[in-house]
Protein: SGNH hydrolase-type esterase domain-containing protein
Amino acid sequence: MLLCSLLIMAGSVVRPDRAEAGDAPQIAWEGNNPYIFAVGDSVLAQCGQQFGMGWRSLGFIGWGGATASDMRGRLDGTGSGWPADSVTESSVQEERLWFRDAGSLVIALGINDVKFVTVAEWRDNVDWFMTQARGRPVQWFTIHNPPFQANVDLFNAELRLATDRWPNLKLMDWERYASAHPEVTISDRVHLAYYREGCELARNRLIQHAAPAVPGKTSPTGFWYVDSRTTGRVALNGWGAAYAPTPAHGVQVNVRVDWRHFARLPVDRPTGDIWANAASAQAFGHSLGAEYRGHAVCLDLVDQRGQFAHLGCRIV
Structure:
């Protein structure tokens, strides 16, 4: 009776495709190793060496005032003139080594480019960095610099176009977040006013959500929204991701009621949640009938590899 009710409510229960012998589902958003190196300007430098990734951080290049052209010259050895105190590792040579050998990269460049370079130069530099990545995952912050908004829009559009050319590129929408939360920046509307609000709860969290999987270890990621209602149908809304750069490598939500398996349902809807977008996630939206009020409901995500991530249990 319980299962029939949900079948009527949800339309159908989606089951995983039957795997043929020897099939090994592949999730592309996984680096060659778990370590991440970051390259950016003064706003990246404000958030420090770990940039929210803890032991996975190899370090970073944080060069105030740098454009992508400047950083390209620093990394390929053709540039010169950067201040000595801008070296954030033991040497420029070590920075180049980490940039070459990290399993994935975080890039935070563009706030200075919109002031000094053309769109064509910006496009060329984006492609240079992506070529250097050699297929490794790259997380790139969109640009937020309101005094130069017209160019910001053009340069961010180029970043979005680059995701079509480079499937290993994932954008973290800092422009959207900072525009919605102007209190995180100082009067120039670019640099961060508070470490906790600007770094820990915003930029670092975007990096964490967008980060590629740790090879062989990382489970799906997601969130179950709280339903504030206490009567009527029980909303099961949230989002889920499988550490993949596109939603094609998706997950399903496993529903348990009173600690027993109930159904597995699709996670296949678009979402406007900025954290879900950073994780390349899709949303789920289902409901249980009012007769399940007072019961224990548990949700888990399961990806194509059969890995589970527990989203929690609640008395609904």
In short: The longest helix spans residues 149-165.
